Amino acid sequence: MHTETAGSNVAEIEFAIENFQVEDADLPEFKDMQFENINELKLDHPGANDEEYRERRDHIAGLARKFRETGVITDVDYSPREQRVWRYVAEELEELHQRYASPFYLRAKKELGIRTDTIPQLSEMNRRLRELTGFRLAPIEGLVETRGFLSWLSYRVMLCTQYIRHHSQPAYTPEPDIVHESIGHIPMFTNPAFADYSQFVGLGARIANDKQLEELGRLYWFTVEFGLVEHEGDIKAYGAGLLSSFGELEHAFSDRVERRPFDLEQVINHEYTYSDMQPVLYVIPSYAELKEVTRKYIESF
Ligand SMILES: [Fe+2]
Q: Distance between alpha carbon 140 and the CA centroid of its chain, in Å?
């Protein structure tokens, strides 16, 4: 069993860089994951004062805790109200995706069976992803601190929430939810170069010092969350924060945003804010180039 140690060294990273096929035996134990206050619902959350919503969110969070004991993803029996929230958001986004999303993403969404009429289950998407790129999904009950979250990517594992945002504000969520995960993140992991890139970011996070970890956080932000990619002379979106938000996606293609060619040095030093729409975004030439630039970068750690 592969375990995390405080002083992870270069030998460990060399092994993983050459090994994109992570076997079950290579994974750390999910039950050893240490999290602090992971399931806290913040006071500014639209569901903060809705007792029924909180109970429901707690119940679904409980399924994620169960996963850590059993290693088995439990499907959520989503309620009609939750399904309505999904349909509303998924349909609105689908229209925008046709205009703005990267063609790879559009195909991947179809291939994973992500539809507008019903909330997809992590179990099924996990099964398909493992076949396609060896990526895995692991249910989690809330936001995880940067190093812990990114480190799991080094094992080709994405931690995903299963609950859905509050019905009073379907276009908004202050925390990741099943919309953000399955419409935003999950389709891109079917791209081999993007999956390998994500693994590099994870490997980097395991050996980074605090300054490097901050840089990796920015790289993740401007790619995995808010990335744009060139496509046949055009610019398309592949970042989850863009693809899962009507506001961010339209904004990204407006003239209020400066779209710069991707430059690693610039990106890792670019401080951003969570709260406002992004005034600057970075356009990668291709997923393969993003992967190679990142390989060299983390090899320099
Ligand atoms: Fe995200």
A: 12
